[in-house]
Amino acid sequence: MTPRASSPVTALRRTALLWTAAGLMGATFLPWYAQPDSVFAFDWVSDFGTTVEASGAFSLALRHGCWWLWPLLGALLGCLSLPLLQPHRRTIGTVLTGLAGAGLVLFWLQGLAIGVSGWTTDWLVAAFGAIDGRQFGIGAGATIVLVALLALLSLGLAARGAFKGDAFIAGAVVAVTASIVLFTVWPVLRILVQAFNTTEGAFAPALLIERLSTPKIWTLRCLWGGGGCGVAWNTLFLALCCGAGTTVLGLAFALIATRTAFAYKKTLRVLTILPIITPPFVIGLGLILVFGRAGLVNQFLDNAFGIAPTRWIYGFQGVLLAQLFAFTPVAFLVMIGVVEGVSPTLEEASQTLRAGRWDTFRTVSLPLMKPGLANAFLVGFIESIADFGNPIVLGGDYGVLSTEIYFAVVGAQLDYGRAATLALLLLAFALAAFFLQRRVVGTRSYATIAGKGDAGLPVALPDGLRRLAQAIALPWAAFTGLLYVFVFVGGFVKVWGRDYTPTLQHYAKAFAVERGPDGLLWTGAAWHSFWTTVKLAAISAPLTGLLGLLAAWLLARQRFAGRAALEFATLLSFAVPGTVIGVAYVFTFNVPPLEITGTALILVLCFVFRNMPVGVRAGMAAMSQIDRSLDEASAMLRGRAPQTLAYVVLPLLRPAMVGALVYGFVRSVTTVSAVVFLVTAEYELATTYIVLRVINGDYGLAIAYSCALIVLMLVAILLIQLLVGERRLGRRAAAPVAAAPAGRA
Amino acid sequence: MTEGVAFRDIVKRYGDTVAVNGVSFTVEAGSLVTLLGPSGCGKTTILRMLAGLENVTSGTISIAGRNVTTLSASERDVSMVFQSYALFPHMNVLENVCYGLRRSGITKAPAAERAREALRQVGLDGYDRRQPSELSGGQQQRVAVARALVLRPQVLLFDEPLSNLDARLRRQMREEIRDLQQRLGLTAVYVTHDQQEALAVSDRIIVMSRGRIEQDGLPRDLYERPATSFVANFMGESSQARATVKRLDGERIVVRLGDAAFTVDDSRAADGETTVAIRPETVAIQRGPASDGALAGTITKAAYVGTHMEYTIDTAAGALFAVCPRVDRPLAPGEAVALTLAPRGIIVVA
Q1: C-alpha–C-alpha distance, residues B220 and A82, integer Å
Q2: Which residues, 6 or more positions from A279, have their beta carbon under 8 angstroms from its beta carbon?
Q3: Residue A589 and which of A64, A416, B26, B94 are 20 to 30 A apart at CA?
Q4: Cβ-based neighbour number of residue A357 at 10 Å
Q5: What residues make up the domain containing B268?
Q6: Which structural domains are found in chain A, ordered by start?
Q7: Do A636 and B148 touch (CB under 8 A)?
Q8: Which residue of B has its CA nearest to A651?
Q9: ipTM of the predicted assembly exceeds 0.85
Q10: CA A286, CA A311: separation in Å to the nearest integer?
Q11: Which candidate from A161, A630, A640 shows the least CB-CB separation from B55?
Q12: The domain boundary residue, chosen from B208, B230, B252
């Protein structure tokens, strides 16, 4: 028999006491509340215990009248009683679960109930009378207590036999669940509360109905009479057109790529990688260079025929065009899967039954693709309503929900109630489309291959159809390429439209480096936001990958109560548009208990929880390829869960790891919609900086910066690939999009 | 007797479906017990609960007298040989066998030493540096066994270990496993759906059906004295016949099939009309009409399968299935025959 360190009960008791001790130390020796600068500035040390801001929890409760901390501290102290209990795992587990669970509940109750100016709502004042206590955002001490309570809860649950008795799995499930609840579910629910509240914070349910029924959202004036329609109709109409357009284009591309002898099929597939590394507004920029007032088309018309330049591109047409360019590659990717999923044997069967090529396509192939087409349509729809970058750059007077939310928060209106209402509406649209898509994907089973080898050869397209597909797709592909070329060239000319003299001035303005007396001076205008972006993306990418793969491993490999709910929550956080998340973070995290607005932390959190679902999807897809018995074999061979993860699962998951890292980084760099609400002068990001330049008409700099970003991302992808050691990048980088087409903006 | 494994009133539910329904049994230390049954009978679930890969819904499991019900798989001191072998594809043979030792906190050199010893035991000397993908099915199987053996676990579990091998190799491997288990005195629980395999390797067999134990006994008893018609059908082939039972004395009964009567050893069966199971290899067939004491029948189907003939015969007691080693002068459908049954081939099931 192999040697064993100690009996399970002793080990359990020791671990639980260690966590309790850690929690108590945090509560005693670290300031409970957040520090104005950072806890690592250590300016609190001199005042420790004397002021409310710089006191530990026990000192607060004993000397500063914060009696509401006693119950939760009591729960933690209660865990010290473990050595007195019977040495049964179940008994210890039940006591731990009870104490830690109660502690967590009390922690949040007091945190939510008492804010910077005492009780947070009127009925609490009515019930308990006014108090003069006040609370700030939680700091280092409170965080350590929170972590300790979560750890104790996991230990307790595992000891009771949940999660097959494995404390690590229990801890991982508790950690993942807690972080998703804290940083996705809670903020989104917070919008709901905000939508019901008046600007002063009073609860007024009638207000929501009033806000929702305003003509600014629902008017249909554009159909008759003059004027524009409401933003809700604008958003829906745009999304319908975008969904239909991208589906047709995607189908045309997919047919050419899979069912014809087209010579440059490989090149076509490059199209699918472009949107991953392109910030969402770059296409919009390219369109401005071609169709804008000073664009090529207007100039040509002006010079050749004397037609005065128009602002034609700004508005519905412009946004739709930009979205079609931006999202067709995603539809292409979806449709490749769909077209390849149609079994060639069925088409051959049809041909042996006297059907010609056209009849076969019309009566067999196309009906089999129907669910796939519906899926592609909904993906385009979802992408369109979540899009922020293109409408803000090209929208002009054509307002959509995402931009209206932005103006309600950032503009002169500063109407949080309106922002929340619009966000709620956008969320409702997104979720409706998302659920519809899930249902469509659920019904596609009859269209896909049955898992048996299919010996048939795909039937060639009917000639007419082939010509049609080529007539649609090839010019479009050429034009997409051309747009990228214009964007690239645009960074090297003085003023597009007026002065095409080649110049490096835009790059110099953005990225100048001068030699000063004390070494290099980063004098370029873009450096600040550039380094902030790189730093924050580099911090959040590994966190995203780690959390995503951990969640994927739990969802794919562990069976536990609430697994379905957890999976649903990660899926859902995927469907929430970025703008909604941004607004939700602003509402939720600029007041205690979690007061982190204006910090780098909130940006990192936003990146991590926006991008994590992609990591989860990629991880789950990869894990379904690894036989479950390998994990079990490791467990049977004395490998505890963390060891199994480290020695068996992770080495086999390398490709998915690369995917998650690349995605975490690239999406952090390219995202606009969520972070546009969260950036500050201190923490400005590249994309928000560029969007502001575009809005101000400073195209040269914006273009130069965008190109630099694209290059940065290519470098980052290569670097990550080199570090983690994986060769087939193209396939890997493309895969997560296919698995997870929604929610990019 | 020393108790190796004890299962007490184990129930396992998945939602509304009951996979294991109140199962209790013990495994003596040093013996090999087989769980046998058709797919979906709950035998693999029992094995996985014993391993700690599944939680029990209710009941207790103990190993060597220690209650392990809530312990995780890595804390139980059991090892398992998987149906798919589950060799880690990113490690070579030696690393695979060392894996469990290293996880138990044994340093590299002694771990490698013990791993080589285990590989020698399964006859894989000098395969240390091979990757699992470079081995044949039988060799992979041996690595999986060595990997489980090397930890000297309290209990060794086998989950249909031979089902991925071809027939010839299957027999060889099952002999090697049985040999190893007896030589090292291991306590083992073995799961299979192949009754021949079960008969060949086991000290004791537990036949399962629909989440319950049908019969728990010695291999020979199970074949010759099945307690239920399910066991009679599952352990080897048999055909059902209508019969009348009359007790002769405490040890013997007379079984009447049509016009024929046979004296059978049996101490349990009650008098009256019943269904009996007839083993096909105990039916002796004679050409021509039945004489005294034999059962008259007509051949309805005849098939030549190489080593023997297979016949279906219509009789007054029902259609009987019989095998006959004589292939030189086969009987044809329609021929009248006289059947004599060996007493050990007539099984009265409750």
Answers
A1: 54
A2: A389, A669, A670, A672, A686, A687, A690, A706, A709, A710
A3: A64
A4: 19
A5: 238-348
A6: 8-160 (no CATH), 539-693+714-739 (1.10.3720.10)
A7: yes
A8: B90
A9: no
A10: 15
A11: A161
A12: B230
